[in-house]
Amino acid sequence: MTKRALITGITGQDGSYLAEMLLGQGYEVVGMVRRSSTVNFERITHLMDDIEFAAGDLLDQMSMIEILRTHRPVEVYNLAAQSFVQTSFGQPVLTGETTALGVTRLLDAIRIVDDSIRYYQASSSEMFGKVMEVPQTEATPFHPRSPYGVAKVYGHWITVNYRESYDLHASSGILFNHESPRRGLEFVTRKITHGVAQIALGQASELRLGNLDAKRDWGFAGDYVEAMWRMLQQDTPDDYVVCTGETHSVREFCELAFSRVGLDYQDHVAVDERYFRPAEVDLLVGDATKACEQLGWTPRTSFAQLVEMMVESDLEALKREHGA
Ligand code: NAP
Ligand code: F7E
């Protein structure tokens, strides 16, 4: 029988890769989208004929109850969030409403409409924040460093709570940073690769960044959505760290990205305090042993391959745009 999955956040980076993967497996995919004054479907243009869209918002519980009643999914992937850490300092209440309370609204909608639905929560390595141990595992205590991180801790624990209170098949993936050519331009990796492409093509000369010493465990989003799906195929719901186990600084990312086009990052990168955060997460590096052993999941894309893929994609896109 064909399985139907609901994805919230389908217009986002991960939503687009997950939709592709599920459609490839024969799923019917329903994507929840919120109203906006302009269309925002760039990442899923190639899937428009295959996805069914449903209007809803994490801020509006009735809209989600209605979607569940109408579309009757067997799996729900909650990827929607205010996901940019920097913005969460400027809009902490909106971030809490969406990224924290939005999770309760959706879990409650599931409990009311059909408690047999399997649920995936997009938890985050930002919950580890000021890290209590290296590397971070499912057992590492949380110490978030931003309103976004705090909201994700709430979303994580309410998912655990609904699993324990109402026996929901609800799992959390504690995903470390994952990137792709579809990453939003405000995130550091894409900002760098887009900037490198502009500089290489003579469209810019400088790239202004914040803290170059922050270290992240960066993987490829296309690999990570597979882990989400695997979690919901388990008999028992659980929480899993998903990461590469390698960490690199923003500076290293710059070095490699600029070197792909034969340039030295030191000639083009300027540090700009506007991009510093009130509290920083200095180092993230995870241990995905549990996901590897229980889900049979491992990342396939290396750091160097990821950087190359993103630089190449931005170069191609800018050349197309400018008719080169
Ligand atoms: P993203 O590109 O920023 O996408 C976020 C999605 O959420 C978009 O589709 C956005 O819709 C939607 N959204 C925002 N507010 C909403 C609301 N009130 N109601 C309904 N939809 C709303 O994020 P991503 O990188 O794909 O990440 C997916 C999820 O994983 C997020 O929950 C993120 O916090 C989490 N996460 C990401 C990473 C990572 O490294 N990428 C790591 C750990 C966890 P619009 O297009 O309309 O704005
Ligand atoms: O920053 C530093 C910045 O914004 C990474 C989200 O997907 O992953 C993401 O959150 C690091 C930080 O991602 C700039 O200070 C330096 O230390 O790319 P980012 P993030 O904050 O790690 C987690 C796992 C999520 O869950 C989030 O949703 O890079 N950095 N200079 C900069 N960052 C940005 N954005 N811009 C700069 O110019």
Please give a structural write-up:
Helices cover 41% and strands 16% of the residues. It has 324 residues and is α/β, with parallel strands linked by helices. The chain folds into two domains: 199 residues, Rossmann fold; 88 residues, UDP-galactose 4-epimerase, domain 1, CATH 3.90.25.10. The strands form four sheets. Strands 3-2-1-4-5-6-11 form a seven-stranded parallel sheet, sandwiched between helices. Strands 7-10 form a two-stranded parallel ribbon. Strand 1, helix 1 and strand 2 form a beta-alpha-beta unit. The structure holds NADP nicotinamide-adenine-dinucleotide phosphate (NAP) and ligand F7E. The site of NADP nicotinamide-adenine-dinucleotide phosphate has 25 residues, from helix 1 and strand 5.
Per-chain topology:
Blueprint lengths: L3 E5 L4 H12 L3 E6 L17 E5 L5 H11 L3 E4 L6 H6 L1 H22 L4 E7 L22 H20 L2 E7 L2 E2 L8 H13 L6 E3 L5 E2 L2 E2 H12 L6 E4 L5 E2 H11 L8 E3 L17 H7 L7 H19 L3
Parallel strand pairs: 1-2, 1-4, 2-3, 4-5, 5-6, 6-11, 7-10, 8-13
Antiparallel strand pairs: 9-12
Helix pairs in contact: 1-7, 2-4, 4-5, 6-8, 6-10, 8-10
